[in-house]
Specification:
It contains five helices and two strands, in the order H-H-H-H-E-E-H. By secondary structure, it is mainly alpha-helical.
Length: 217
Amino acid sequence: MAWGSQSFATFLILCPTSFFLGVLFSLFPYDYPILWTAAPSLPEAFTALENHLLTLHASPPLIPRILHIVIATGLLGFLFKLYKPSESNMLFDGASLVLYMIGIIVYVTNIVKGLRVVSSGDYGQVELVEGEVVIGAKAGVDTEGVKGIGREDSLRVLSASHTILALVLVGVLVLQAGQWYAERKERQEVERISKEKAEKGKGPAGTRAQVEKKKKF
């Protein structure tokens, strides 16, 4: 792939990744008192996070559509970079794509599901099978000894998911930066070898020309 096209594809990857890190950073003031303080979390901290998540989930349909378009933009960038890949693309971009897909999985399985639970207020549900949820014994299923996740634990799981997603996205940025550095060093090495070959090629020719001049005199 040409260098210009590769730079554009890298741009398509870095922009969505940085965008999502910015979104997660905006959630950090709500996550910090729940996950990152040694003191017991206050009820007000859970209420603040819950209200913020309710606002996010109740946003107009345009907001999630923009979010999904940005996710697709990142995948498009990986598609461009992994088309006819070099060894560098396979190593760095392949690992970056794996991390990006892990981030999408965390988003779909933890964050989206958590937002739906917060929005409905049905904390403490018992999930028996994917897509089948019962509350207590309403469905005629014996749930004795099986406990659902309460409100505070559900919000802690959401906060932890934000942290996991942030670490995954930082990993994508680190791998892309590592690829840029490796390719830069490779270009410098190729240029150095080319200069050495050029100098060696000029050396004998220059020596022969000086000898011929001396013979003439």
